[in-house]
Amino acid sequence: MLVDFKNKVLTIHQGRELKPHQKSQLGFWGFKRSEEDYKVLADEPSTLLLKVIDYFEKEKIPYSLNKDCKELLGKIKSRKDDFETIRHTGEEYKDGIYQKGVLLEFTNFLKNISPRPLKNHQIKAATHLYLVQNGANFSVPGSGKTAVVISIYEKLRREGKINTLFVIGPPSCFQPWKDEFKITLNRQPRYQILAGGDPESRKSVYFKEVRKKPELYLTTFQSLLQDLNDVIIFMRRNGVEIFLVIDEAHYIKRIEGNWARAVLNLSKYAKFRCVLTGTPMPRSYTDIFNLFDFLWPDNNPIDINTKIKIQQLEEKNKNEEIRKILKRNIGPLFYRVRKSELRLRSPIFHEPVVLKMNQYEKRLYDAIENRIMEYSREDNLRNISLVKKLRRGRMIRLRQCVSYAKLLLTAIENYEEELIESNSDLIEIIQRYDEIEVPAKLEYLLSFVQKMQRKKQKVIIWSNFIKTIELIVQTLSKKNIYCKLIYGKTPIEQESVSEEDTREKIRKEFIDPASGLDVLVVNPAACAESISLHTTCHSSLYYDLSYNCAQYLQSLDRIHRVGGSENVCTNYYFLQYKNTIDQDIAQNLNDKAKKMNDLIEEDYNIYSLDMVEEDEDEQAFIRLFG
Description:
By secondary structure, the chain is α/β, with parallel strands linked by helices. The protein folds into three domains: about 1-75, Alpha-Beta Plaits; about 100-340, Tandem AAA-ATPase domain (Rossmann fold); about 350-625, Rossmann fold, CATH 3.40.50. A seven-stranded parallel beta sheet has the order 8-9-7-10-11-6-12, with helices on both faces. Helix 6 (about 145-160) packs across helix 7 and helix 10 (about 260-265) packs parallel to helix 11 (about 290-295). The protein is globular, with a radius of gyration of 28 Å. The termini are far apart.
């Protein structure tokens, strides 16, 4: 039986000798019968050819290969050998075995390209990436992963291997890439942002003359999904040699996700690839599959049989066996810097400032708390799904109370419960709240900021509610304190933004020591990720908190990072109302943060990306109300 490959068609000649179950297997792989032959169109025949050969050998079916198949099989074997050599090199490097001459030449290059030399832990990570060619950097936030990748890009560019850095990530990562490029290489990049606006308007960018193309491209997962075909055409053009980077790569963890499929379809058109994330396995060991399928599209480090085995072991909670498999298969292909290796000065977490609520906010909190206790007695008469929604909504109402009373007027998705009667005098108190009272937290915050102003120290203020952020900014502005806010509505730099302040402009102004902008008010959803504020700001105040531990930990890292926190003390301040939900949230966050920090020191642990269990609000409800 002859296996033939010509003009993208894989053919099995004289298939009449096959048994029914063997013919069925070929049909499962897409082969169609044509007289006595079985044919399939195969744009990427390598994987299918290997499947057919393995199957024929398993079934003891005699076969021969034509010349094209033999050549293809030779290329596959050569790629596999090259991959195994790289995996061995990565393993040896992580074990401390390497050629000293090669390492010395590389480290000298890294030290000479930048006015700001890489730290030792960055040099180690960069060397590993250079050796494995397509690698993952799973270092903790604040460790300088962006600078590592840019340094490798420059090394490969000077070697003539690539000429374009193409980055896919959330919009918040755009400015750090531009800034780090300038700082690391001491030159301003010619860049193109491919996000926002009309997809048709972006099309022309992909078809510019190659000699006029920018050096750095920045796009989002959403825009890539819209532009995928155009991006593929761009990457396949003569003279375009791509180093493809996925920043915050945990966004492509879902195996069947649209973003993941787009990224995986693109990977084979890049010459070199890299993924960056501090949380490679947010929920499950399977979260890591896409990352390494992207890095090595022709030599999947975790093959299909191993993936199935990992899924089966995970169902049985046999985590130690999974870790051994991952260490063997992907351990050599990623590098990880732990927080303890950064040598940053330990931050100071000041004891929370516990305040008594002012008269009307206290009255509202007590009324809602009492009504929740009353309603909760009837929860056992309702269906479980409804109870979960009610408990979530009630917890949000309590969080609103300890942030800003007027938030109680806002609707909560999937929650309709009257905690305050519409004809009650309490409704009037909420509606007129700004006229009759200033929250005790806001009074303290004002005095705190004024004290920081006298010390000429910048401060970032965190709140989870937009109306609270706006209230804080209005209050500080009335006292002639120059401040700005960043939250979901604050635009990100793109071509369609002209007059408005973007997050990038505000951030640049804030970190400028001479700008006069010394107070920034933000929410974690918009600023917890990818934004660096540590060069001139060393104090954060948390006006209120949520149960989202990852956003909380990421927010801490905004001012505690490599390149500013080695010798300067970082301070964190917290406001709480006495005998309220504030204490439960803080204790819960502290417990989860300790657990998270213990986990992330290990290479193969699962540590939740958001650290919010699906029943977190329900658990909080049970803690508070029994």
